[in-house]
Amino acid sequence: MNALTEEEKQQGYRLLFDGETKNGWVATQSPEGWLAQDGVILCKGGNKGYLYTVDRFENFIFQVEYRAEAKVNSGIFFRWTDPEDPVHTGLEMQILDTYDQEQMEKHSSGALYDLVAPSSNAVRRAGEWNQITIKCDRNEIQLTLNGITVVEADIDQWSVAGKNPDGTDNKFKYAWRDRPRLGHIGLQDHGGRIEFRNMKIMEL
């Protein structure tokens, strides 16, 4: 647990969580709301805010496992450039309890939040562990949930602030085509209890 295999070491992966401490991570607010215990980073919930990496990454493959309680809303932020403004300067892979949802939306679990709906419902029941892989390679973004690729997007297609390529609105006040791509990885506290483990990254 929270260890690399020999193959992963040879591939160039490194751990982002040592299984015991929050070394390498910073809380935007309420640090006491994030605990490193029993081999997981535990978000206690209720504080709102984020825990993000000191280091920044541009092109990479990031892997993490998470387990959330029922109805919990959270997310993995990446290419997040301004710690004071995660909402507009970070891309997000949505974490949400949408196991029973039939029609996938841009806010369903696995979505590239507010930009691309997941192609299928791959999230497990609340209380079960899920595996996430986020791959960023220049303008190409691939999101995988429990072994199923649910989003493939060319971020250069987002050339107008507040608009998706199909003309629908999104929340962002910047056009993602023009945004810096070197940024932090962050975990979101949106008011619910959630655990993270086995966080590792390979830079491309």
UniProtKB/TrEMBL annotation:
Any single Pfam family the record assigns to this protein: 3keto-disac_hyd
Domain 3-keto-alpha-glucoside-1,2-lyase/3-keto-2-hydroxy-glucal hydratase: 13-201
Domain of life (superkingdom): Bacteria
InterPro entries for this protein: AL/BT2_dom
GO MF term list: hydrolase activity
Protein name: DUF1080 domain-containing protein
Organism: Paenibacillus contaminans
